[in-house]
Amino acid sequence: MRINEHPVLGRQKKNIVNITCNGVDYEAYEGESIAAALLANDIRTLGYSEKGKEPRGIYCGIGHCYECRVMVNGERNVRACMTRVKDGMRVESQSGELL
Amino acid sequence: METADAVVIGGGVIGTSIAYRLAEHRKVILLERGELGAQTSGSCDKAIFLQSKKPGFPIKLAQASREIYETLEEELDTSIEFKKNGGMIVIESEAHLASMKKFVKERNKAGLDVKLLDDKEVHAWQPGLSGDILGAAWCAQDAEVNPLLLSQAFAQAAKRRGADIRPHTEATDILCERGKVVGVQTRHGKITTGTIVNAAGPFASEIADMAGVGLTIMPRRGAVLITEKLEPLIHGNILCSQYIAAKHAASDTADAPPYGIGLSLGQTESGNLLIGGSREFKGFDKSVGPEVLSAIARHAVRIAPVLKNVKLIRSMVGFRPFTGDGLPIIDKAKEVEGFFIAAGHEGDGIALAPITGHLVASLIDNKEQYKDLLKPLQLDRLQAV
Amino acid sequence: MTYDLVVIGSGPAGMSAAINAASYGARVAIVDENPVTGGKLLGQMHEDPDFEWWIGENIAREMTSEVKKLDIDTFLEKEVWGIFPQWNVMLHSGEQLQASNVLIATGAAEKAMPLPGWTKPGVMAIGAAQTLTNYHRVKPGHNVAIIGVDPLSLSVAHELKMADVNVAGIFLPPSNALTSDKSSPMQIIDDLSGMAHLAPNRLMKIAGKMAKNPVMKKAAAKFYPSFGMKVWGIPLFLRKTVLAIEGKEQAETVKTAKIVQNGQLQQENAKSINVDCVCISGGLYPLAELASSAGCAFAYIKELGGHIPLHSPEMETTQEGIFVAGNITGIESAKVAMAQGKLAGTAISDRLGLLNNPQKAVTRARKEVEDASEQALIQFQPNIGYGREKAEQIWREKADL
Predict the structure, then answer these.
(1) DSSP string, B277-326
(2) Domain boundaries in chain B?
(3) Given this model, what pLDDT does residue B297 score?
(4) What is each CA distance from B223 to B10, B250, B285, B315, in whole angstroms?
(5) Cα–Cα distance between B316 and B307 in angstroms, integer?
(6) N or C: which end of chain C has fewer CB within 10 A?
(7) What fold characterizes domain B2-43+148-216+325-383?
(8) In this predicted model, what pLDDT tens digit does every residue of C275-330 receive, in sequence order?
């Protein structure tokens, strides 16, 4: 899903960091948001709604809608669209089943 | 010209409950200045507490209302997130322990199933509470409801019975002729009616004034904090014994928190915690300073340390209609025929909304059924004081 | 911590104000909940008429280095939970920033446009797709449907295309209480008029010009072909709407239907199109909760995007010392936001007694706002000028009282 060559913006050079999501290892670019890193790895479902247990992903992308809440290193309700990845970060879906 | 058999002023849990009952046999119009349930009924907690009421009439009234809740979802044909998950009043200090023992005994005598739990029992049931909690009064009959859904459910059910529910329609004057109500003026025209019910909660004095009826209901400001969604953390609803002291006792101990703070804690079906609350007389000033919000949070964390790292997402401020003796006024005005008052429920509006609809309908129809419940709610009990 | 000015929001308006005030000698802090400064600049790009690309990220980088040079304290990943008199800006992590002046430059958010299936993963606001594509350089999908026809959705469609994303089509939203405006052909013509001179298609260019004449507008609404047309090679369906987004775990198809003459739907011929991403463009509204909770007076002005805090010609709200700039005052381009930020920064510097010739500086800054607005290439809100006039008039009436 990465855009490696862009006709106007050119080429992107970024350092790679490693994160896990629900126990699986993924590569991410340093400085990007968790949501962007996971989407780059083709992951769209970030969690499940508390009430209807429906799948949820990134929606507004500006931290406003709170649809992209994930657990990061054990901390609940972190916005995937607003939080940068860090090497060794542990991301977990907040699934409705937990509740 | 537009006419109605009865006009209800106020679209909170009380007004909508009344409109629903009255609409069974009448053409009813409900006037609401803003949105339904957006004032007092939209900024409160969700608990239906029985044990927190005073023994005697207040408990009897609350029980009658609680009874209606048993079948209300079925009757209104919608979920109001009614849950019978009990309530506890936690005891923090030795001083409160003695009085809470008496509290439990009195409730048992009044027919409530209240037990005094020791600290081990409390922590087994609510692991999030502080180790300093000495015990708690536990009542299995305490329950909860979603107040936002409650106003909407009553309003929808009233509509199905033909009631005309009008949000964003402010009553600007009450029209009287020869000592009788003849109509109400709104921002969007006049309605001819012989019956008006003042269910305007903390704003009820303003409405009574329009009819030339003397009524003193004061706004008592309360702030509630709302947290992020969390896994189930709190079972049922919790009050602290300080809340009972703040609610019933005029004088407080020196270590009592400021701003009339007493804990009320519960978790919504969506997972958000509601953390109350303060009790202050500040007129209709909604601007609550950070010191009040922080004090509520501090008091809550002292009792439930599990809240320490929980994120707050917003706070809400509402005005509870205060009458002075902890009971609402449900009565007809002496000065003007056809003017009825159903306001002043303070912190018990959620608990008492279902019975209030029945009481007002019975009062207007001059029925015998609820005479015993209506008598202690008459207006002159306060004027006599 | 005490400052002369606390700026909330590090987008084009906020940074521009901070830089301006700090360059006059004010002690300034910037707060933003994002991990980087730049706000919505970071995802924006457009081609100027001279075929030069204007790239928001580059502008943000230049401004950020200016902020650093001027020793402006920058609080990132911090949320403001309240502004209390007179004035105390409270951060979620416990810091309290005291300042006689506060600038609220919180920008805008996207209006919700609910339709069946819109909560599924793969469905996102058009702005999210823009930031992902242009800033993070991650494709929001391989096959994208866009719902909502307006300057922003057309720009993003073009940007997706440049990033080698297939855009399956741009569709009208289904008509309901919340979206009725956005699904009316007449409104669409109004919306598109804001970018008529940039329009990539002759038909749109003509339609954009026609928007100014009511009779011609009606004709144009009829004239739009039911099969749609292509812009930058992307099918633009002006008589097709998306009824629902379907898919099990995530968006897999959009169910589309034709709108016939009288606005009725041709349900029986509903057609499903395969997608893996759906972008919803419901329009922007000013993000003004903080100004509201700080007690600023508001007015609803449709042409500006919604409820806006009333402000003086120098950008001060009804609360003394609280200023606003950027999209919180009405939806316009980043260049207008920057000019407004500069004006607010200048007015605040004047308040602080830092200007030698305040009259001249403020007048010049005001002129720059007007110029930026007039020269804007893209008008996100039709009739923005009328909206500004209305807001000014309400302000004057209030001031007279």
Answers:
(1) ---B-BTB-----HHHHHHHHHHHHHH-GGGTTPPEEEEEEEEEEE-SSS
(2) 2-43+148-216+325-383, 87-140+218-322
(3) 96
(4) 21, 20, 12, 7
(5) 18
(6) C
(7) FAD/NAD(P)-binding domain (3.50.50)
(8) 999 999 999 999 999 999 999 999 999 999 999 999 999 999 999 999 999 999 99
The answer to whether the CB of A58 falls within 8 A of the CB of A46 is yes
ipTM of the complex: 0.95
What pLDDT does residue B85 have?
94
Please judge whether C84 and B312 are an interchain contact, meaning their C-beta atoms are less than 8 angstroms apart.
Answer: no
Contacts across the B-C interface (CB distance below 8 Å): 8
Confirm whether B2-43+148-216+325-383 and B87-140+218-322 share one CATH topology.
no
Q: Looking at chain C, which residue has its C-alpha nearest residue B290?
A: C84
Contact state of A8 with C162 under an 8 Å Cβ cutoff? yes
B312 min Cα distance to partner chain C (Å): 9
Contact B290 C295 (CB under 8 A): no
Q: Do A76 and B230 touch (CB under 8 A)?
A: yes
Which residues of chain B does A77 touch, with a Cβ-Cβ cutoff of 8 Å? Answer: 228-230, 311
Radius of gyration of chain B (CA): 21
C90 and B290 in contact by Cβ < 8 A? yes
C82 contacts in B (CB within 8 Å)? Answer: 290
B327, burial (CB in 10 Å: exposed 0-12, middle 13-18, buried 19+): buried
Third-level CATH fold of B87-140+218-322: D-Amino Acid Oxidase; Chain A, domain 2 (3.30.9)
Between CA B272 and CA B38 the distance in angstroms is 19
Distance (Å, whole) CA C158 – CA B35: 42
Q: Report yes or no: B232 at the A interface, CB cutoff 8 Å.
A: yes
Q: Could you tell me which chain B residue has the CA closest to the CA of A50?
A: B270
Q: A96 by DSSP, 3-state: which?
A: helix
- Residue from the list B290, B311, B312 with its beta carbon closest to the beta carbon of C84: B290
Closest C-alpha among B189, B298, B290 to residue B240: B298
Name all chains with 3 or more CB-CB pairs below 8 Å to chain C.
A, B
> Closest Cα of chain B to A18: distance in Å?
27
Task: Provide the pLDDT confidence category of residue C230 given band limits of 50, 70 and 90.
Answer: confident
> How many pairs of residues across A and C have Cβ atoms under 8 Å apart?
101
Cβ within 8 Å, pair C137-A2:
yes
Please check whether residue B276 is in contact with residue B256, taking contact to mean a CB–CB distance below 8 angstroms.
no
User: Which residue type does B241 have?
Assistant: S
Cis peptide leading into residue C53 (ω within 30°): no
Q: Quick one: pLDDT at residue C221?
A: 64
Chain B residues with beta carbon closer than 8 angstroms to that of C90: 290
Q: How many residues does chain A have?
A: 99
Q: By three-state DSSP, how is residue B329 classified?
A: strand
**DSSP-assigned letter for residue B199:** -
CA distance A71 to chain B (A): 12
Is the pLDDT at B253 greater than 60, yes or no? Answer: no
Reading the block at residue C38, the tokens are 């730049």
d(CA B355, CA B353): 6
Tell which residue, B172, B208, B206, has the closest CA to residue B189. B172
CA distance C71 to C16: 14
Compute the nearest-CA separation of B130 from chain A (Å).
22
Nearest Cβ partner of A36 from C36, C127, C138? C138
